[in-house]
User: Fold this.
Amino acid sequence: MLPKEGRLNVDETGHKENGQRLWTWCFRACLYTVYKISPSRGSDVLIEVLGKEFNGLLGCDYFSAYRKFMRLNENVLLQFCPAHLIRDVKFLVEHPDPKNQAYGKRLLADLRKLFGVIHRRDSYATPQTFCRSLEKARNQMVWDATLESPHTREATALDERFYQHTESYFRFISEPAIEPTNNLAEQALRFVAIHRRITQGTRSEDGRRWCERIWTVIQTCGQQGRSVFEFLYAAVAAHLNSQSAPTLAPNTS
Assistant:
């Protein structure tokens, strides 16, 4: 199902197994979520799960695996999370170099204006007026990021991001149905992180598979408004009676 989705939010977090560092990947669609625990944090996981035929949009952070996946599959579009961008800008604001500080403060002010427009969305008379305000705020930020850079090492790294990936940061402006942040995937990983802290991870491949599956059931049932207990009861009953297991696939009919 995942390779056929038009939009997905994706994120990853650390996982422990007998002292080995693994990674829990979260692929969140509108009506279901899939988890995968992998030794890799690279783009090979995206290729394995989504395949090279995926031609939808990924909501994600700026991590290199997503950018490499986009290079390997020219049909993939990205929406980088602006909330992560704020953290990078704040790093410049707190940098000891006064040039970086001034640059960071300018960009932070631009981000506040951009999010101010988003938060006042309902106050605009028409969707067109809202989009024009967003575009104006975006254009000002891109101008400041690329043409007002002090060309320090730290500022240049951020400058190049905007030069190369402006569309991937602001795609939600031209396509209002796109969620600007990656909060959906991050929220789906919160209880996974809590589980990791309590259990200290897994001990075997069987445990790994169990976690992937039970987390997928818990999160997907929540998205679909279903009872986790009732789903698991039905699954066990079906197994004991040699019947077909219940499905988590969303009913789109």
In short: The beta strands are 7-17, 20-28, 33-38, 57-60, 77-80.
